[in-house]
From TrEMBL:
Residues in WD repeats: 111-143, 211-244
Residue segments, region Disordered: 1-38, 309-333
Superkingdom of origin: Eukaryota
Keyword Transmembrane helix: no
SUPFAM superfamilies referenced in this protein's UniProt entry, alphabetically: WD40 repeat-like (SSF50978)
UniProt keywords, alphabetically: Repeat, WD repeat
Species of the source: Verticillium alfalfae (strain VaMs.102 / ATCC MYA-4576 / FGSC 10136)
Ranges of compositional bias, category Acidic residues: 8-38
Protein name: Uncharacterized protein
Alphabetized SMART domains for the sequence: WD40 (SM00320)
Entry keyword Cell membrane: no
């Protein structure tokens, strides 16, 4: 069953991240920027390295990076996992000391057992009890993570191999369903596991459910903030929002198939995105989600509310996001959606103003693809990385009144960090983590290097 037409809005661009209305207002001073000097005539490249530490044991591209979720641990002690196709293993590194220039970090653990590239990693929620890796060999491998800062130990727990390739892993945020993860595969399937060695030591990877409605590889997935629903997209331009735990069915809002609360496919011309869907983000209150496609299009889809009746009444005050006053300006109400594109631009939409363009960062990463955008929690700051090898941070309050204004001064650029090769040829930044406060940014480099930057 397709969702109602009035539940779908269409805006432009792809790749996205959400900032909650409650998470704005913190002021951050501007930093200095620097340029990379190059001399192509003699083929010498002068690299600017702004990092305070690095990790260079990988022999090839670092495809994924993940950070432990426990606040005291994540804020003070950086534990990262990175993956390379040639080494076919992931490593965990530690940097708990005071920042020092060009400090080499050592690995404390290597994830082995995959026979092809590891391209997705995650710690389980809410406490990071387990670390899971997914590979192009179809293996899902789980490790116990015993964390007692400044120490941590990891031990192999279990493995499952049910699909040809694993494309993504997303941990469920609900404390009612701890240590649960979802994954999407190349055979169009979606799998949900709960890791619980206490209930069954012989089978700690317990299968919760599988879903098979996509007709092409499942490319991305995200849970609603309360962990009650799971949204997934695929190359066939389909979106399904799954009732994993049966909560929607108990409230009578599940669709006729008994599995989903939203089903949208390319059969609906208003929803179809030529080339498929590849990114997804859920609004922090769970009121709607955004999906981005290969054709540079974004679709906004409303979600049913499974919470209390009182919360439902508040949700009907406005279509889409439920915005509340925050500390940015007196009486300000803001929920933002940031989208990065393959043309190097980042567009920021104001969800409280019918998704009007708040800022268009043209050439945010020159002409290279934007790989990731992520808000620093509780602030107006947006961090981005791209195939130009640069990480940048933007203050979305500042800049010119014209949302299309060009130039760093007008765009709200706060700081940029360089150190990767860049230029799109084996030197881009394929991901980053920035903790809860954004004080440090740690990258996954296509050049096989992980860099630690101080904000």
């Amino acid at each position: 069953m397709a969702a109602r037409r009035e539940d779908v809005e269409d805006i432009h661009d792809e790749g996205n991240d959400m900032l909650d209305a409650e998470e704005v207002g913190e002021e951050v001073p501007s930093g200095d920027e620097g340029d990379v000097a190059m001399d192509s005539d003699n083929e010498e490249i002068q690299l600017q390295n702004d990092s305070i530490a690095y990790f260079d044991e990988h022999a090839d591209s670092v495809f994924a990076i993940a950070q432990h979720p426990h606040p005291p641990f994540a804020d003070r002690h950086r534990w990262l996992r990175k993956v390379t196709p040639m080494m076919r293993q992931a490593r965990v590194i530690y940097s708990g000391a005071q920042p020092r220039e060009s400090t080499q970090l050592d690995a404390i653990f290597a994830v082995e057992g995959h026979t092809d590239s590891i391209n997705t990693l995650a710690f389980t929620l809410p406490n990071g009890d387990f670390l899971v890796s997914g590979g192009l060999d179809g293996r899902l491998r789980a490790y116990t993570a015993t964390v007692a800062p400044p120490n941590a130990t990891f031990k192999f727990l279990a493995e499952a191999q049910e699909v040809p390739e694993i494309n993504w892993i997303a941990p469920c945020p609900s404390s009612d369903y701890p240590n649960t993860i979802a994954l999407g595969a190349s055979d169009n399937s979606v799998w949900v596991y709960t890791i619980d060695p206490a209930s069954d030591a012989q089978n700690p990877l317990q299968l919760v459910n599988t879903f098979w409605l996509h007709t092409a590889p499942c490319t991305a997935g995200a849970w609603t903030p309360d962990g009650s629903l799971l949204a997934t997209v695929a190359e066939d331009s389909s979106l399904y929002v799954w009732d994993v735990w049966g909560l929607a069915a108990s409230k009578g809002v599940v669709e006729a198939n008994g599995q989903t609360v939203v089903s949208l496919t390319g059969a609906d011309s208003r929803f179809e995105v030529e080339g498929g869907l590849y990114s997804i983000a859920v609004e922090p209150n769970g009121a709607y989600l955004a999906v981005g496609g290969a054709g540079g299009q974004i679709r906004i889809v409303s979600l049913p509310r499974l919470a209390s009746a009182a919360q439902g009444q508040r949700g009907r005050q406005g279509k889409g996001a439920r915005a509340r006053p925050t500390g940015g300006q007196p009486g300000q109400q803001t929920t933002l959606l940031a989208a990065g594109s393959v043309d190097g631009s980042i567009v920021v939409f104001d969800a409280t103003r019918r998704f009007a363009v708040r800022k268009n960062l043209i050439g945010a990463h020159e002409d290279f693809s934007v790989v990731k955008v992520e808000f620093v929690k509780g602030t107006w700051l947006l961090t981005s990385c791209g195939m130009d090898g640069v990480v940048r941070r933007w203050d979305l309050r500042g800049g010119a009144a014209n949302p299309n204004a060009a130039g760093a001064a007008n765009s709200g650029l706060v700081k940029e960090w360089k150190g990767h090769l860049g230029d799109g040829e084996g030197g881009g930044v394929l991901g980053f983590v920035q903790g809860a406060t954004g004080e440090r940014v740690i990258t996954a480099g296509d050049d096989g290097v992980v860099l630690v930057f101080e904000a």
